[in-house]
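Appendix C reproduces, verbatim, an entry submitted by the partner laboratory led by Prof. M.T., so that reviewers can inspect both the input and the predicted structure.
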Amino acid sequence: MPCATAPIAADNYDHLQLKIADGIATLTLRVKEQGGLRPDDYTLKKNSYDLGVYRELNDVVERLRFEHPEVRAVVIQSGIPGIYSAGANIDMLHTSPHWWKIEFCRLCNETLCRMEHDEERDYIAKIDGSAVGGGYELVLACDRSYLVDDKKSSVALPEVGLLAVLPGTGGITRLEERVRPDVAHEFMSRTDGYRAKEAVKLGFVTDSFPRSEFDAKVDAIARELAQGGWKDRQGIQLDALDESDFRHLKLEVSLEGRSAVLTILPPPSYDFPADPRGAGAAWYELRFWRELQHALHLLRVKYAEVGVVVVTGKGNEPAANAVDAKLLAGAKTNWFLREVLNTRIDALKMLENTPKTFLASFGQGRLHGSLLELALACDRLYVSTATQLELGPLSHGALPMMVGESRLAHRRIATAPTGAIDGRAAFEAGLVTGCFEAPDFAEEFEIVFNRTLSTSPDAMAMLKLNVKLSGPQTTESRIFSILSPTQNWVFAGPNAHVALKNWGNVHDFAPVRT
């Protein structure tokens, strides 16, 4: 499989065009037909997409947050007449191994959830042509959607009837929150979808306008929402990260051993700058978490064979809690600090949603604030009697999990310990999975590591989902705990294999339902 990890720069998108004016970002989808990650296997016709296209969309969402904070409205439109987007490329799905399909859908879903959670901007789907499958799922993740009424353009989720798979990038979950269950069921069982008037009546789009008024109407809505933009905000420039550029973590991979070690390096200092925005993308509190996201992406698509990741390091200093306190207080009024905080939230969710078993191993040193939060986001946390731990100001709900609760609440810790405590006290308080005597730590942890590595990868991946996404439910958690695993199961079934290979033809489906 191709290594879809190359750095992405805003000035060389292959498939997207971004223009900014008067607080409005206009994102035009013009997917290059021969620009797929595997052009010999498929052609990206009709604005269909693969993982490479969605990596660009994910990059746009992040750059809007940091490079263009003045933007208050984002219009997503097509640059190809008559079609908004045909969704995921079918030939790409057919020619991809099972794990690649899963990682493709995972990135798509995370990108759409980040769009949906962006409280600073309104996303507007300007549907000047048919939005089909994943193309309509992109629409559903927008705050508003407008479909041209030209008697031809429609919205549809034909995956069940046409391809024997599910609308796997949030379509089922978001749609059933908007329309009646029986209406959603019928819509997703048919292949033709709905045109403008019926789509508006049934709640599948926000509104529709005739072609003669379409551009003017949607543009006016965007201007009203943008109100000229946030004129007092000045963005920063994000650099395109690469594995060789990591400054604050080190990723060591053993493909033969099916494992990796992710070492967290301490920041150069724990000072909170007088002008955090002036520190830009190099500021540790932003760069580290962006590096972590890129490392997780590498583990997913470049090192798929890796099953267990050991997260370790020398720890951090108590001063880290003071930095977190200033970040939390400043985020209430400062857009930049708010986005830095959101990046931490995204990175921790991404770690919890990565199908590897993360074992946090800190046999010495100190774990304070956000570093402890990162360790708590791992599947298990092991310390020694020599380790010191202290919860920080962000541990009490400022960095929510997908299920919407803090990691302390998810651990069912009613009364969180205050101040610095040792490993034994942390174990008694329910903060850590295990605490070993300091001289025995390496030997004891090796037993844990080997036992974990010897367990079925499939079972461990599903175990993680069931544990991490238990408890309260949100749209995001339901997508990853119900829709995604179900889609993965359907992908592996006999009917999907036949339909994806011979799509457009009549199929003789296996009749037994399980």
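The chain has two domains: 10-226, 244-462. Additional entries are available on request from the coordinating office.
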